[in-house]
Write a structure and sequence with these properties.
By secondary structure, the protein is α/β, with parallel strands linked by helices. It contains eleven helices and 15 strands. 29% of the residues lie in helices and 26% in strands. Helix 3 links the parallel strand 3 and strand 4.
Length: 364
């Protein structure tokens, strides 16, 4: 098993195309062509985690957070980042970070939070814009079905719970090839009219290369006419945060007690309680202050996130409860999610859940 084969499966689960622009996801150290002896899954790649990988004969670390986040100008071992990278390189250990690609996945970080809290009817809190594209192409009527099926097979034409979705319009196409052309239909130098079908399909943006390859490989024409546009339609399967509903509403303090126990938080910092039951819950693993207004707009009774600052709590405006459960605490189940996924994909391969404690925050 090669590093690039592991990465291929990870990116089916959480495509890096949906990572945030500020992020540094993907392969951080190592070669894609290296053979993998074992995989260690962790939240953070500290030097102690690299030590654990060496001990357990794992030469690929799959991490949630990227240990290299901003540019490194030197590698002297002067800080925890440089020491971890140096040790990984010296021991031929590859590091792959998934971070906001998994944050934005429907079955990612926030879905795990909802799962732990028993929330149902889950929806994305902040759909990521520009993730749906549309292809319009034109093919001879006799070839249209073949082209359309090839596009479906490549992943086009899926809308929510439906697949093989397309719109087809019959019409007449015209073209004239020059002296360098080699037309499949008609003759060079002569204007030809052909009964054609216009085929329109939507697709997720990370599949664009596959979709276009399928089009070119299965279209009969020497030159394929097509248009690709980005749609403004919200994508309810890609984005930050999530909302869900409790099966039965709970009193505020009782719910906060359950959250504290579920996530093992040393304490929960929260805004003023409102004296009304909790039914709809918004969640966003990690630093989520930017989503407070969206949680309010979604009608959430409480917003569970981390890293809230003093003035962030004022933004509750007596419209919901803000609850800071801790950064590590909110993302801790990500390790289990990734380990379970990789074990299913590579059943006969060593996938190890790291037991190294990487939470830098302690409670007294």
């Amino acid at each position: 098993m090669l590093v690039k084969e592991i990465i291929r499966e990870l990116e089916k689960f959480a495509p890096t195309a949906y990572a945030e622009d500020f992020d540094n996801v993907g392969l951080l150290t190592g070669s894609p062509g290296s053979e993998v002896s074992g995989i260690l899954v962790t939240l953070d790649t500290l030097e102690t985690v690299v030590d654990e990988a060496i001990e357990k004969n794992c030469n690929l670390i799959v991490a949630f957070h990227p240990i290299i986040f901003s540019g490194l100008k030197k590698l002297t071992g002067s800080n925890y980042v440089e020491r971890a990278i140096l040790k990984a390189i010296k021991n031929d250990i590859a590091i792959y970070a998934i971070h906001t690609a998994l944050d934005n996945s429907f079955k990612g970080v926030n879905d795990m939070i909802c799962e732990q809290l028993g929330l149902i009817e889950r929806t994305i809190l902040i759909p990521q814009p520009g993730t749906i594209k549309k292809l319009v192409t034109f093919a001879p009527k006799k070839n249209a079905a073949e082209v359309r099926e090839a596009l479906f097979a490549a992943g086009a034409g899926t809308i929510g719970n439906y697949d093989h979705c397309s719109f087809n319009v019959a019409g007449s196409g015209s073209f004239r090839g020059n002296e360098a052309s080699n037309p499949v239909i008609g003759r060079k130098g002569e204007t030809h009219y052909e009964e054609e079908m216009q085929i329109g399909v939507t697709f997720p943006k990370h599949l664009e290369k596959n979709i276009l390859n399928a089009l070119f490989d299965n279209h009969p024409y020497e030159e394929v006419a097509y248009e690709v546009t980005t749609l403004e339609n919200p994508n309810q399967h890609i984005g930050m945060g999530m909302t869900g509903i409790l099966k039965e509403e709970m009193e505020e303090k009782a719910f906060l007690e359950q959250v504290k126990k579920t996530f093992g938080s040393g304490c929960i910092r929260h805004s003023a309680l409102l004296g009304k039951p909790i039914k709809k819950v918004a969640v966003l693993g990690g630093s989520g202050s930017f989503a407070i207004n969206q949680a309010i707009a979604a009608g959430a009774d409480i917003f569970i996130t981390a890293d809230l600052k003093y003035h962030d709590f004022y933004k509750a405006e007596q419209r919901l409860v803000l609850a800071d459960v801790g950064h590590y605490e909110s993302e801790q189940y990500t390790k289990t999610l990734l380990t379970t996924y990789l074990k299913k994909k590579f059943a006969n391969f060593a996938v190890v859940l790291s037991n190294t404690e990487t939470n830098p925050i302690k409670y007294f």
